[in-house]
Design a protein that fits this description.
This is Endoribonuclease YbeY. The chain is α/β, with parallel strands linked by helices. It has five helices and four strands. The protein has one domain: 3-Layer(aba) Sandwich (Collagenase (Catalytic Domain)), CATH 3.40.390. The protein starts with a strand and ends with a helix.
Length: about 140
């Protein structure tokens, strides 16, 4: 079960990748998911907007797009695309450190792959709670 981080034409500083990978693996285990592979791709607003238009028919900027690629129930293989431009802007908007916002979005993508949704107010509240739990646990390590 491999977890990879790739930056496409953006500068992203991701500290302690080994710890982050171990935390993500434990997250999937706690959620009862067998993780087979996970690819995080850090990119620009323009790149993610193009993907949003092409694959989701949405003509809006977003901070994250998550694709579940597994064809076997109970296993997870996915790709998570994260706009570093949105992460930076949202960090300022919400008055949090860029590192914290980046990790929130990383955990958000993993939680989507674990089956959490965020389209309704109730689902979004649960997603935010799970993100906060992940942030607190991760930064206490």
């Amino acid at each position: 079960m491999a977890i990879h981080f790739t930056a496409l034409e953006v500068n992203v500083k991701l500290k302690n990748k080994t710890n982050l990978k171990a935390f993500l693996k434990k997250l999937f285990e706690r959620e009862g998911q067998q993780l087979h592979g996970l690819q995080y791709v850090f990119c620009s607003d323009a790149y993610l907007l193009e993907m949003n238009q092409q694959f989701l028919q949405h003509d809006t900027y977003t901070d994250i797009i998550t694709f579940e690629l597994s064809e076997v129930a109970g296993t997870t293989e996915g790709e998570v695309y994260i706009s570093i431009d949105r992460v930076r802007e949202n960090a300022g908007k919400f008055k949090v450190a860029e590192e914290q916002e980046l990790h929130r979005v990383i955990f958000h993508g993993a939680l989507h792959l674990c089956g959490y949704k965020d389209k309704t107010k109730k689902d979004a509240a649960l997603m935010r709670q799970k993100e906060d739990e992940c942030l607190q646990s991760y930064f206490e390590m």
